[in-house]
Write a structure and sequence with these properties.
The protein has 111 residues and is an alpha+beta fold. 13% of the residues lie in helices and 14% in strands. Strands 1-2 form a two-stranded antiparallel sheet. It has a two-stranded antiparallel sheet with strand order 3-4. The chain is elongated.
């Protein structure tokens, strides 16, 4: 679950549906809610397994010099992630696979 400071200011659902989320009615630290700030997900969307949409995924990056910074959810390791087909997928791996195809066996992608 993303920490409160990692929830994007745009307030878009992090499941990938692109719908705006509502402000949290109260603080709920254990799930990353801060009263008045957008919640990370719409109710029931945190475990979605729907189709992946590039139109929603790619705009969640901002350019920082030669790097792209993910504005969505982050793992405790600091790597960005999205939920795709019911599992957590790191954004750097997903971007690699979108533009280059599957990561070859025995290879890793750098975050």
């Amino acid at each position: 679950m993303p920490r409160a400071e990692q929830i994007p200011d745009g307030g878009l659902c992090q499941c990938g549906c692109g719908q705006p989320t509502k402000p949290a009615a109260r603080n709920r630290r254990e799930i990353g809610w801060v009263k008045g700030r957008p919640t990370p997900y719409l109710l029931g969307h945190n475990g979605r397994t729907g189709p992946f949409c590039l139109d929603v995924f790619l705009p969640n990056f901002t350019r920082d010099g030669d790097c792209l910074r993910w504005r969505g959810g982050h793992h405790t390791s600091g790597n960005g992630y999205v939920r795709h087909l019911g599992r957590r997928v790191y954004t750097h791996v997903l971007v690699y696979e979108i533009f280059n195809g599957m990561v070859p066996d025995g290879r890793r992608t750098a975050a």
